[in-house]
Write a structure and sequence with these properties.
By secondary structure, the chain is an alpha/beta fold. It folds into 2 domains: 6-200, 2-enoyl-CoA Hydratase, Chain A, domain 1, CATH 3.90.226; 204-251, Lyase 2-enoyl-coa Hydratase, Chain  A, domain 2 (Orthogonal Bundle), CATH 1.10.12. It has helices at residues 30-45, 68-71, 76-94, 111-118, 145-152, 155-164, 170-176, 188-200, 204-215, 222-236, 240-250, and strands at 6-11, 14-19, 51-56, 61-63, 100-104, 107-109, 121-125, 129-131, 168-169, 181-183. The strands form 2 sheets. It has a 6-stranded mixed sheet with strand order 1-2-3-5-7-10, sandwiched between helices. The protein has a 4-stranded mixed sheet with strand order 4-6-8-9. A hairpin with a 2-residue loop joins strand 1 (6-11) and strand 2 (14-19). Helix 5 (145-152) runs antiparallel to helix 6. It is globular, with a radius of gyration of 19 Å. The structure holds coenzyme A. Residues 24-25, 27, 64-69, 107, 109-111, 133-134, 137 line the site of coenzyme A.
Length: 260
């Protein structure tokens, strides 16, 4: 499958995936959703990739939503398939087992907000506008927005954003716990780079265990989640990186993790 709507580049262990439809504010059409699915699957199995940064091309948008031009022509059966394709791709991002940082550089609306919420960490430029405006089109968010907003923030935030459909500022998104950091637009790249480099030098098996425990364990009853966490913890004690991390602490030096 050729990739026409994405730009993919590697810098050390950091892979950057850029949605590249700036003339359509990076709206998610079906082809782009399938390409993202393929790109994230490739990143999952590439041992050299430890961190993924996901962003949108141009200065104006991360992603301004699902492609409305495509939506208008969908039958309800096609709409079901479109919804499931988006949900599957985003669940793939969420369960990747490697940290994904959403670099939010402008409009982050509808499917864009849903995509951002499927990432593990979100850094937003202070100019970002976020929201779930589907109500204004007479539809329900179909890529997990109602579910992830409820889990990430609260029922109250989910109902406010989805029912009123008005975009909120980056600052308000931070207050609600939707984004992890808000930075001046000019400092966005430096902030993303600093976070990506920190993650790239961390122990990948420990990151995997944390992601699995939070993403999968977080949806379990507490007792099951705690058992899950214990198993993830025990696995990391069998790694070279665990020996290195604890030894480096005792020897008062920075640990060099090798990913084994
Ligand atoms: N789907 C398809 N195309 C979209 C789009 C979307 N979600 N969002 C923007 N575009 C397209 C516009 O149609 C326009 O294309 P054109 O130049 O061929 O006409 C181009 O991107 C630029 O958008 P434009 O609306 O001219 O920019 P703006 O600065 O005036 O407004 C927004 C920006 C984000 C406020 C506006 O584009 C918008 O409301 N987009 C839809 C947001 C939405 O409802 N998303 C949820 C979808 S389920």
């Amino acid at each position: 499958m050729s990739i026409e709507n994405l730009l993919i580049s590697d810098h050390g262990a950091v892979r950057t995936i850029t949605i590249n439809r700036p003339d359509k504010l990076n709206a998610l059409n079906h082809a782009t959703i399938l390409e993202l699915d393929t790109a994230f699957r490739a990143a999952r199995y590439d041992q050299a990739v430890r961190v993924i940064v996901l962003t949108g091309a141009g200065a104006k948008a991360f992603v301004a939503g699902a492609d409305i031009a495509e939506l208008t022509a969908l039958s309800s059966v096609q709409a079901r398939d479109f919804s499931q394709a988006g949900q599957r791709m985003m669940r793939g991002v969420e369960t990747l087992g490697k940290p994904v940082i959403a670099r939010l550089n402008g409009f982050t609306l509808g499917g864009g907000m849903e995509l951002a919420m499927s990432c593990h960490l979100r850094i937003a430029a202070d100019t970002v506008k976020m929201g779930q405006p589907e109500i204004n089109l007479g539809i329900v968010p179909g890529f997990g927005g109602t579910q992830r907003l409820t889990r990430l923030c609260s029922r109250s935030a989910a109902l406010e954003l989805c029912l009123l459909g008005a975009p909120i500022s980056a600052e308000r998104a931070y207050q609600l716990g939707i984004v992890n950091r808000v930075v001046p637009e000019a400092e966005l790249d430096a902030a993303v780079e600093a976070m990506a480099q920190q993650l790239a030098s961390s122990a990948p098996h420990a990151m995997r265990g944390i992601l699995d425990a939070v993403i999968h364990g977080g949806d379990m009853a507490l007792d099951q989640g705690l058992v899950f966490e214990t198993q993830a913890f025990a696995v990391t004690t069998a790694t070279e990186d665990m020996r290195e991390g604890t030894r480096a602490f005792v020897e008062k030096r920075k640990a060099q993790f090798v990913g084994r």
